[in-house]
Write a structure and sequence with these properties.
The protein has 216 residues and is α/β, with parallel strands linked by helices. Helix content is 38%, strand content 19%. The protein has 8 helices and 8 strands; from the N terminus they run αβαβαβαβαβαβαβαβ. Strands 7-6-5-4-3-2-1-8 form an 8-stranded parallel beta sheet. The radius of gyration is 17 Å and the shape is globular. It starts with a helix and ends in a 6-residue tail after the last strand. The structure holds pyridoxal-5'-phosphate.
Length: 216
């Protein structure tokens, strides 16, 4: 059944857009159903939930961390995480670099931006990131910033959601132009969830994070 939901979602996503199956609150057995249907990229928003699933499951799964990450938890995921989508502070970026170095690897990250109306959502503002990048992050050799991530407000208004995705795209374009013009790695715009990923794709998403529509 889950396999059919996965297929239904896949059919609505262009092949150049990456689908992250958000598996939070679903157990290893349900994740395996999706895996056996041919999908290997999963997202979790809590380290405590990700670790036991990582331990239990096959190691060719690509795990993305998509929720707020505390600096003291970075060390647990640094050995294996494929992409940390939710980097929302300079302090966290430094910590990820440090733990990546200890593990002798380079960890890909996205900078999370706050564009939604809800105060509860985490993320940088554009001016904070510009300040950070102006001061230079080239000393941090064990992280690779490959793009940005964001969430739209949880509202019914398609117009409002579209406006927020356009704001994210505009932030992406600004950063690309000013700080990563020749960096081919900086290309990802992660936005859109079950309720709004089609709008996100129309507005330029390269990664969508879909949970409940697959694991329903
Ligand atoms: C839960 C979650 C998703 C997926 O949400 P669905 O509505 O279940 O598709 C996407 N992104 C983040 C950051 C999440 O926490």
């Amino acid at each position: 059944m889950i396999a059919e939901h996965l297929q239904a979602v896949q059919q609505t996503i262009p092949s150049d857009v990456k689908l992250v199956a958000v598996s939070k609150m679903n157990n290893a057995e349900r994740i395996l159903e999706v895996y056996h249907a041919g999908h290997k990229v999963f997202g979790e928003n809590r380290v405590q939930e990700l670790l036991p699933k990582y331990e239990a499951l096959t190691k060719d799964i690509e795990w993305h961390l998509i929720g707020h990450l505390q600096t003291n938890k970075v060390k647990y995921i640094a050995p294996f995480v494929s992409l940390i989508q939710s980097v929302d502070s300079y302090k966290l970026l430094i910590e990820i670099n440090k733990e990546a170095q200890k593990n002798n690897r380079i960890i890909d990250v996205l900078l999370q931006f706050h564009v939604a109306k809800e105060e509860t959502k985490f993320g940088f503002s554009l001016s904070e990131v510009q300040e950070m990048l102006k001061n230079g992050i080239s000393d941090y050799k064990n992280i690779r910033i490959i793009g940005i991530m964001g969430m739209a407000s949880n509202v019914d208004s398609e117009q409002q959601i579209r406006k927020e995705f356009q704001a994210l795209k505009s932030i992406f374009d600004t950063l690309k132009k000013n700080y990563f013009p020749n960096d081919t790695n900086f290309k990802e715009l992660s936005m859109g969830m079950s309720s709004d990923y089609q709008i996100a794709i129309e507005e330029g998403a390269t990664i969508v994070r879909v949970g409940s529509k697959i694991f329903k």
